[in-house]
Every structure is written in C-alpha cells, then in structure tokens.
Automatic annotation (TrEMBL):
Keywords: Coiled coil, Membrane, Transmembrane, Transmembrane helix. This is Uncharacterized conserved protein YlxW, UPF0749 family. Belongs to the UPF0749 family. GO terms for cellular component: plasma membrane. The chain crosses the membrane at residues 53-74. Residues 95-122 form a coiled coil. Residues 279-315 have a biased composition (Low complexity).
Amino acid sequence: MTAPPKKDQGRSERVYAPDFLTELFRNPLDPGYADAAARRRERQASPSGWRHWSARSVSLVVAVLLGFLFAVAYRQTLEAEPGRSQVRSGLVAQIKQRESETDRLSERADQLRAEVARQRAAALGGSEAARLRTLEAGTGLGRVRGDGVVVRLADAPQNPDAVTGKDVGPSRVIYSDLQAVANDLWAAGAEAVAINGQRLTATSTIRSAGQAILVDFRPVTGPYEVSAIGPGSMRERFEDSRSALTMRKVAEDTGLSFGVREAEGLTLPAAPEPRLRYAEPPASATASPSSGAERSASPRPSGSGTSPSPSGGGR
C-alpha cells in the first residue's frame, strides 16, 4: 500500500467546514498570507550580516551629521543673539525718542495755535472774533464743548477652540464700521465728531493699514469711542440708523461690543491746521500762425473777448 503523503511541517492546515459563513469567521486569513507574514518575521529577526551592519552604519552617520548641524546652528544662534538684542533695543529707543519728540512738538503746536488765536482775537473786533470762532467750531478747527452722544466699539474677546485649545481670533472692529458710525452721526445732526480724540473735518480720512486703523493718518486703537456733540434728538435718530442696527446684529452674532450712551459736557479738541492747496491758472501757450494754415487755437466769433481765469480758490 502506498503511504499517504506527509504534510509540510510548520504550514497550517485549513479545515473546510460545510458551512461557508462558519469557515469564513473561523479562518479569515488565507494560509498563503499567514506563511508570507511568518517568513517576513523570520527575516526581520535574523537579517543578513552585511545588510544589517550597513543599515546601522548609515543610521549612525546620519545621526552624527544631524547632531553636528544642530550644534553649529545652536552656536550661531547664541553668537547672533547679542547683536539682535542690541538692534532691537536700539529700535525701541528710537521709537520712544520719536514718540517723545512728537508729543513735545504737538504741545508746542497747541501753544502756538492758542497764541495765534489770542493775537487774532485782539486784532479783530469783538463781533468778527466771535464769527471766526463760530466758523472754526463748525469746520473742526476750533475746540468745542457741549452735550452729545458717545458710541463705543470694541473687539470681541478671544475664544479658545474647543478641540485644539488655540485662540481662533476675535471679531475685530474694522475701519468701515467707524466710517458708517461717523457718517450716521453726521446725518443724525451732529455738529462736531471725534474718534478717540481725533477731530473729524471735511477732509478727514478713516482707513486701514494692515490691522491698524488710521484717522487722518494717525493710528487709533480699541476700544474705539466716537464722540459727537449735537441736539438732544441725535441719539434717538442714530439708534434708528442703518449702522446702529447693523452693529447691534454683529455684536449679537460675534460678541463684538457696541454701545450708545448720552454724555454731558463733552469736550472735543481742535483738528490740526489743514494744508491748503490753491488752484492756479494754466500757463497759456502762444500759438504761432503757420503759412497757409489756420491757427491751432479754436476760432472765436468776431468781437468776443477772452475772459480772465479765476486766480486762486482755497480748498
């Protein structure tokens, strides 16, 4: 009789059951995959000599090189730190010096402006001086005091993300918000408006530079207070304006702070003296007649004179 063939040692024998689902859950992995996984584990357990040492040598060389590079970078950082600290401290000192000079010049300009006002009032009569003060108050070039409204806007507080814990950033007040509030205060009857102490005039600008807000090219920071002097009905009219309704909705949705309150005895400073520019008549070029051709200037009817151009109009 022929002996039954011997089964390979170490190879798992798969038993087939009549129930396919039972066989599937009992032996989910094919024997070929199990054998391949076993051979891979054996190779990893006992790698060949030269490959094993080659891999270890490469890893060691890479580790040494990385350590050397980190050491060099750390040493260069330490050597350059005093220079950077010195440059930073120098810039901070320059900024503080310029700020002090600017404050000193602003105080000097206010003193000179007050002296000019006194000299001008002394030179003019009583009625003329009063009329001039009224015009200065209306144009923003004079200091004014009275009752009015203060609109306060502030950025929303930073809220950490619930998953990462990092600050997702606040809802910020942008320059167009201040523009809309100032315009609606004017429409509500305001006679004088200032933003954080910066008086607004007919030529004032409210714009942004990066994340900073500039009023007449001077930076203002939050919280922002838009102060306005005007009639008693100004607050009620402003509360019904488009900007007030929009900002209240934004405050409810984002947490941004927005409030309106009445204020008594507001004092708004005068705006800086504007730099006036004057119109000048264009230089008229004399047209020379050419032979057999008409003048280059447009023909005029007979007897018409040339009206003089207006010289200078202050703006």
